[in-house]
Amino acid sequence: MRRWAWLERDRAAFMANLGRMEALAGRPLMAVVKANAYGHGASWAAEAAQAAGVRALAVATAEEALSLRQGGSRLPILILGAVPLEVVADLVRAGVALTVHQAAGVGDLAARVPAGCRLDVHLFVDTGMHRLGVSAEEALAVGAELGRLERLRWQGIYTHLATADSDPEAAERQLARFGAVLEQLQPRPKLVHALNSAGIFRLGFPEATLARPGIALYGLSPFGEAAPPAGLQPVMRLLARAVQVHRLQAGEGVGYGFAYVAEAPVQVAVLPLGYADGYPRQAGGRAEVLFRGELVPVVGRISMDMLAVAVPWERPLQVGDGFTLIGREGGRQITADQVAKWAGTIGYDVTSGLSRRLRFENSSEERI
Ligand SMILES: Cc1ncc(COP(=O)(O)O)c(C=O)c1O
Question: Which of 21, 165, 166, 236 has the largest CB neighbor count within 10 A?
């Protein structure tokens, strides 16, 4: 059953973006596919990443990791977030690596590993972001403990940059702190990683064995620019068809609160998606969509399940006509970053916020 609001994704674009980021980074990738691959579908992204030769995947939660395994992904998976001890045994059985992000509780973690098994761990060093991570001062002692505990295999060490997109000098200071920790580590774990998408574009870290991009793989900008970064292509499209058409006279309103009132005769197409689908409510009255290759405005308030667009009176318009909310039509393109700008947020928020109510359709099916 095909709803008249749906998503499409472009595997070739995703594969090309993986290749481009790997070339830019100059090392293999740990592809970040948390939050359902930023809304693009984690299993889909994992399968393509494996086909593209990606070395490992990163997710945020235990559920994300286990669902990738259930979906058949065989790549190494690292959970970047904090994990409740109750799921450790399941993660060991699934062959998933965990992040050790604080000094306390490392022994408790090892105690949860079933006898005869080993849990892969990466040590997260907080080099200034003050989210997760052991401090640079603690890192050596915690690393030594990881090395001693038989049921743990200390596989990797990493840090995360707070300002690679906005303040490269502060990011360089974080990398220098991380480098100083690495210098004192003898022996070092096999995997070392630090750079996210913005870091790969703007910075270097020769000690790293992997790069850890997310957003750029989906063809979106880590710098909040509306245009895709050079050499990358957006992967996702958001499309809809008009379920009803109105011909309004001047003075007639549309939607809740009549936030839009026609100043002159205009046609209004109602599209069957709203903020419950993740199209941001804050974009109401500012956003535009593509209709037959031209931009037309979203008018009035965005409802939970519907939004309205205004189409000039003289243009042919009927129920079933197609609209592109994110994607390219002809020579014009609306990126998720552009939608984010209309909504006062970032592209990450827009794509990862699209709800499961929107389904991915095969791009080779009937097109608008
Ligand atoms: C720890 C960590 N590494 C890497 C990434 C990927 O960052 P980006 O999507 O900006 O490339 C994220 C994303 O938030 C993250 O939290």
Answer: 236
Q: Pocket of ligand 1, candidates 22, 160, 193: which has the most ligand atoms within 8 Å of its Cβ, to mutate? A: 160
Same domain, 157 and 240: no
Q: Work out which ligand 1 atom sits closest to the CA atom of 38.
A: 9
275 counts as catalytic: no
Q: Which atom of ligand 1 is nearest to the CA of 215?
A: 9
Do 319 and 207 share a structural domain?
no
- Taking CA atoms only, the protein residue closest to ligand 1 atom 6 is 214
User: Given the CA of residue 80, which atom of ligand 1 is nearest to it?
Assistant: 1
How do residues 42-98 score in pLDDT, each as one tens digit? 999 999 999 999 999 999 999 999 999 999 999 999 999 999 999 999 999 999 999
Q: What's the CA gap between 212 and 58, in Å, rounded?
A: 8
Tell whether 363 is covered by a domain: no
Tokens of 248: 């309004």
Exactly one of 34, 218, 275, 348 is catalytic; name it: 34
Within this chain, do residues 124 and 214 fall inside the same structural domain, yes or no? yes
Last residue of a domain, one of 184, 218, 252: 218
Q: Is the residue at 265 inside a domain?
A: yes
Based on the fold, state whether residues 200 and 79 are members of the same structural domain: yes
| Domain hosting residue 72, numbered range | 11-218
Does 246 lie in the same domain as 135?
no
Q: Residue 295: beta bridge partners?
A: 290
- Residue 341 lies inside a defined structural domain of this protein: yes
CA nearest ligand 1 atom 14, residue: 214
Catalytic-residue membership of 158: no
Looking at the structure, tell me whether residues 312 and 206 fall in a common domain: no
Q: Does the pLDDT at position 365 exceed 70? A: no
Taking the alpha carbons of 193, 195, 201, 206 in that order, is the dihedral positive or negative? Answer: negative
pLDDT bracket for residue 1 (50, 70, 90): low
Residue pair 7/322 in contact (Cβ under 8 Å)? The answer is no
Mean local confidence (pLDDT), 199-219: 98
Question: What CATH number corresponds to the domain at position 279?
Answer: 2.40.37.10
- Which pLDDT tens digit goes with each residue over 179-208? 999 999 988 999 999 999 999 999 999 999
Asked if 163 and 68 sit in the same domain, the reply is yes
